[in-house]
Amino acid sequence: MSVPGPFDAGGPFGELMRNLASLFTSSGPVNWEVARQVAGWAATSGQSEANPDPLARVRIEELLRVAELHVGEATGLGASGGGVLRARSTTRQEWALRTLEAWRPLLEALATSMARGATQGDDQADSPPPDPMGQLLGNLPQVLTPLLFGMQAGTMVGQLAARAMGQYDLPMPRPAADELLFVPATIDAFAGDWSLQADEVRLWVCVREVAVHSVLSRAHVRAHVDGLIRDYVDAFAPDPDAVQGVVGSIDLNDPSSLEAAFGDPSAVLGQLRNDEQRRRQVPLQAMLSVLSGYVDHVVERVGRTLITGYGPLTEALHRRRLEETGGAEILGQLFGVELDGAAYERGQRFVAGIVERAGDDALQRLWRSARELPTVAEVDAPGLWLARIDLPDDPPSGA
Questions:
Q1: Is 152 exposed, middle or buried (0-12, 13-18, 19+ CB in 10 A)?
Q2: DSSP structure class, residue 139
Q3: What pLDDT digit, counting tens, does each position of 330-361 carry?
Q4: Is the CA virtual torsion 20, 24, 25, 26 positive or negative?
């Protein structure tokens, strides 16, 4: 049975298309009503979802306690801000809506840049059309850009939600909170597809989520990574001809032209990167490589102790990580947080180099203060980092 499109009966625009004014009404650079509608639909392919399974929810809560204890012992980092770390089991749709809200400032920054692209080169600004309808058509790019970005942001986040198992499928800071999101249906489906024990997959996801959260929830780390992402986003300079081309293809008498123009996020957003963004991405990717290498190290250390089928599980997860497509891939490009195999290996080499030289305990210095965060050069030369923070470049006896 074919899945209905967003403009078909039952799609997110069934009601909105009956009131076109709501499609074009936005108080900011993103039409958030459209974004939420599309994200919810894309997360579920328009299908209804059952509430999270109560047994799976209880097991995740129990396993989160185990993961928090063992990750804390392995890292010396607290996972909560002083309270109790909580698991929130969600549907895919709820995950999408909560993620849209968490990333709202970044998405609005991107949309603002897109609006600049849509209005560049407008040599008619001093000669407004002579009638109201002409005024509307003359300002069509400005009118449609919030709709365009609302649809594409919703599509990307919804596609990511369709396969997310936890909160940090993309390694991006979120507003400070002692709560982690989990999607039990996706976790259990993955376990079933690979003939793995559901509890072991749940525990692995809990360990990884706690490890990432333990780092990104530290105020100076969150501020540093968030600043690097914002710096990258600020350099976004879309081709105005590409934006105008998408807008120009729209026929307001034909709703299907909206789907054709806006339904594919890569139409405009997939061709964003410029030389300035590439330059600004260098320190961001270096920091995320270190984060990924550190998290992989912690998960390996804890997982091998707690998970019987750790080998087959990590092989399946490795394949899954290298097969990111759709919303995850484009969002990674938009925010500069996509990591390929070489970036993961770079982080793993850095962490291995520290452990080799100064022992596992030296890793706890990585996240202690802003001064101790590694520089770009140090990521490829861990000995330089050890020397700068005054740790002995010599493994302790027995390490």
A1: buried
A2: T
A3: 788 888 888 888 999 999 999 999 999 999 98
A4: positive
